[in-house]
Amino acid sequence: MNAPSLVELAGALPAYAPSARLAGRICLVTGATSGIGRAAALRMAKEKAQAVVIAGRRQPLGEALSKELRQLGTESLFIATDVSRDAEIEKLVEKTVTRFGRLDAIFNNAGFQEKRALLAEQTDDVYAQVFDTNVRGMFNAMRHEITALQRSGGGAIVNNASVSGLRNPNPGLSLYGASKAAVISLTRAAAMEYAGRGIRINAVAPGRVVTDMMLGSAIADMRQVAKGLPLRRMGHPEEVASAVVWLLSDEASYIVGHVLCTDGGFLAG
User: According to the model, what pLDDT value does residue 264 have?
Assistant: First the structure.
């Protein structure tokens, strides 16, 4: 059977009308070279962000995206970054503030999912890679970003969690699920600590979204999975990006410590 197309799995991409939600803001996206991170960076540019700094480990993809963002009329800079390395995250935030003077809105998207296997078959090295990227990376990012936001007078952070952190739907991906549960806990704790200091922190929890990570997750029949969801389709990365941009905007000014499930009804179904 041929691999399913994006339209087969997710249908046509719904239309939306940008409304300058992030006008004048300096934005930062980690894990931006593909999937949800890439979609979020492009949406920020379309929402009139002044600048979108993008970070990731794949230099050619990052440079190409940065060029695309500049063509949309937004200043952009790609900085090669491994979020599991604290020094690289610190340098990312410092370069952003040095170049653009401040930091306003952040989407922490970088993540890693192990190859599907039962828990007893996973190794120390796999555990380290999952938790160093998804949990240590989130901790590294938030502590430097929060410091920069405080200096800028406040701002907003959205962290990328997963429905797997709320209810693990993926046998064989126990480490990924546990790491995303930790992301949700870190998000809520940080949100309570910094809400009174002018920093709003929230998370999105995507469900079945058509990304490279999803397509590489060893699911035998993607078409059947899509049909089994309440909307009878998977999601587009752009649909998660819409939720991210909304949470970062002033339209979500009273939303703090929330996990917005961008899952097409998966958890409710």
Answer: 94
Residue 32's alpha-carbon distances to 23, 83, 168, 181, 254, in angstroms, are 20, 12, 25, 22, 27
Q: Tell me the backbone φ, ψ of residue 78, rounded to 5 degrees.
A: -100, 130
Among 16, 176, 194, 254, the active-site one is: 176
State yes or no: is 194 an active-site residue. no
- Residue 7 Cα to chain centre, angstroms: 22
Handedness of CA 177, 179, 181, 183 (dihedral sign): negative
Q: What is the domain-level CATH number for residue 122?
A: 3.40.50.720
The residue whose two tokens read 């996206």 is 29
Each residue's pLDDT tens digit, 129-169:
999 999 999 999 999 999 999 999 999 999 999 999 998 76
Domain count, the chain: 1
In a domain, 84, yes or no: yes
